[in-house]
Design goal:
This protein has 63 residues and is of the alpha+beta class. It has one domain (9-61). It contains one helix and four strands. The protein has one helix spanning 9-24, and strands at residues 29-35, 40-45, 49-53, 59-61. A four-stranded antiparallel β-sheet has the order 1-2-3-4, with helices on one face. A hairpin with a 5-residue loop joins strand 3 (49-53) and strand 4. The longest helix is centred in the N-terminal third of the chain and has 16 residues, at 9-24. The model has no long low-confidence stretch (mean pLDDT 92).
Length: 63
């Protein structure tokens, strides 16, 4: 069950793994936000790391 405005369990797992990986490289995490229209999680870290986490937990760089 996915409540409107909340990430899926797969997105949460991926977000945790990405957060741990990025902070282990001493990069700061500036923003993590869910886009309620697309249901994707936007992840901004360091100076130029931008990621999208899809509903199924897969992620990709924003180009």
């Amino acid at each position: 069950m996915n409540i409107v405005g909340l990430p899926t369990m797969e997105q949460l797992k991926t977000c945790f793994v990405l957060s741990a990986s990025i902070t282990s490289m001493y990069q700061t995490i500036s923003l993590i936000r869910i886009d309620e229209r697309t249901k994707r999680v936007y992840f901004l870290a360091g100076e130029e790391i931008e990621l999208l986490i899809l509903e199924n937990g897969e992620w990709r760089f924003v180009e």
